[in-house]
Amino acid sequence: MRLPFFVYGTLRPGEHNHALFLHGRTGSEEPGLLPGAVLYEGPGYPYAVADADGGTVTGEIVTARPEAYDGLLVLLDRLEEYVPGDPRSLYERVQREVTAADGRTVRAWVYLAAPAVATRLRRRGKLIESGDWRARR
To answer: What whole-number distance in Å separates Cα of residue 132 and Cα of residue 137?
Structure first.
């Protein structure tokens, strides 16, 4: 399924990985929110962690150009160190409902912290209270 991506950290416009991985490969980019998640500091990048208590993460909904989609999916999986079924993965790529700025609900791929990473972050991670990677500065 060719879903858009919800990005919330270094892939957001203006961040360093946006230019490296998304520039020229997207058809659209728009502000969005990921409900049911919270954000933690990582070593130079954030982790979104599922949260049943109603947190929200701020980011962008990025739609890849059709001809760039397959290659972009491979690049992003590699960047996020996501390998399906590998317990050493830092992230899991999952489908989630995100909310666009105009109120539409969009199903998108989101890289959430892998289970072992999420457990560690919940215990002793540094929460980004605002849910916005940019606002942490």
So the answer is: 10
